[in-house]
Amino acid sequence: MKAIATAERRIDDSSQQWKELVYWHRRCAALPNFACNCVCTECIFLEIKFGCGRVENSNDAYKCCPMAFNNACKDSFLEDSYFLQSRQFCFCGIIVREGYRCEEHSVITEDGYILRLQRIPNDGRSSRSGQKLPVLLQHGLLQSASDWVLNSRNHSLGFILADAGFDVWLSNVRGNVYSRRHVSFHPKSQEFWAFTIDQMANYDLPAIINFVLNETSAPSLHYAGHSQGTTIGFILFSERPTWSAAKVKTFHAFAPVVYLGNTKSALRHPMIEMVGGYEFMPSTRFMKWLGGKLCTGKTAFLCQNALFLFVGCDFLNFNMTRLPVYMAHTPSGTSVSNIMHFSQMIQKGEFKKFDYGSHENKKLYNQPESPTYNVGNMLVPVVLYWGGNDVFTVESDIMRLSKELKSTLSIHYYHDSDHVDFVWGTNMADGAYRRMLELELIIICLNLLAKYSKIRQLACAIILFIIYRLGSVLSIVVLSKQNGVKIWLRGLVYLLHVVVVFCFYSLSIIFVLVCSCHKGAVTQMEHFILKTDINRSSIVIFIAHYFVD
């Protein structure tokens, strides 16, 4: 309350000119630098008092003036900043600030955990009715749903999917900053933190998927996970293959974490067992303050090195000015048991359930060793995305995973990307995110024409892809005009690129259809094409698998 009192006192002492300035600008981010460099609560109360009217209750204030609780003061990192204190306002504030609508929902799992979901409904910026394809984004280890929207609108997957017309759902698993509630247990109790990825996969993810499908009345959804989000996806989809195949159309696995026997991450050392308590790296005011202090200026390298130890973060594809923003939301907390589970996966080199010791294992699993998950049982079509600079999930482990999977549609490799680039990297908008949209467009087209012949479906898929690429041509032309570049030159270059891509795709698909309908031919084509153009040709492999199957 001290900060609030200070803010009110400064408001009373301010001049009429200052009041008019605040009223007309309406947003802290639009005020002069000296305004946001002061206490953020002052900035907020100024806006509430003169922009929306005086509201005492913070919840009512958010409803009255949500822009006051947005990410405007993100670079302040002061103790009494609402951006850092109140994440329930901050999350939707980030989304609303970008011009999208935001909803929040709660889901109760079978074992009593209360999870929070955020939603960017329909096209994200419109209240128009009409069913959209739901897509569920699941965050990684020590992260939260906010990581999908921390970059700008053009570089955040949550916003990109919303602009593409998807109904975007962002979920939070038990134990992170948004899902620290239980119907019976207190977050400070030992019982609350008795979970690992096993429980996230068996309880959290099914409850979330069922909730999204019930809310949207959609028969199925698209699932995209990063890091730990892929792990729980592989567990659920392999343990309940029939159920999953009926509810999940596609599974996009960014930096998939399944086999970790060759990881170079610091988690390979069993020192994690020495960590006391039950919660690991919680999201606290001190951690957020520390992140704000250490991740700026001359000490920013400390944050870089800390991330590098775990995931190989080289920051080549980062907007470094937003590093304090990332660290204000990371870590988001998990259980010590969950970290120990990943450590066990590293030490054993296998994809197993949590090892409680031979005595407890016999009680739970009826065997002394913890059971192994069989990813080969999975029926959900999966697309793998991985980076060459990732020290957490390395090439040998990814290749082992791809060989054991029987439902792989395509594999995408980004040689200059690391583990966290798939959520924070600015290179993903034209990389993995574009690949994801291209594949989804083809899937939508094939589903719409399911009653027609496969030749017509193939033609539609190719035409739709060309239209998608031509849309990029038009955007390049518009940008060229704005930047004073010769329009015809850039447009011609990009148009030639589209023609070359079209010919490459067409010839590859015709080769598969004409030469053979045997799966071995597709496998041979995979090895040939992946060596020449691993990213662009993945769609060819996807269509080839579809027609051969």
UniProtKB/TrEMBL annotation:
Is Transmembrane there in the keyword field? Answer: yes
Any one Gene Ontology MF annotation carried by this entry is: hydrolase activity
| Pfam annotation, one family | Abhydro_lipase
Record keywords: Glycoprotein, Hydrolase, Lipid degradation, Lipid metabolism, Membrane, Signal, Transmembrane, Transmembrane helix
Q: Which residues form the signal peptide?
A: none
Keyword Hydrolase present in the record's keywords: the answer is: yes
Q: What biological processes does GO assign it?
A: lipid catabolic process
Which spans are transmembrane here? 458-480, 492-515
Write the protein's name: Gastric triacylglycerol lipase
Q: What is the lineage of its organism?
A: Eukaryota, Metazoa, Ecdysozoa, Nematoda, Enoplea
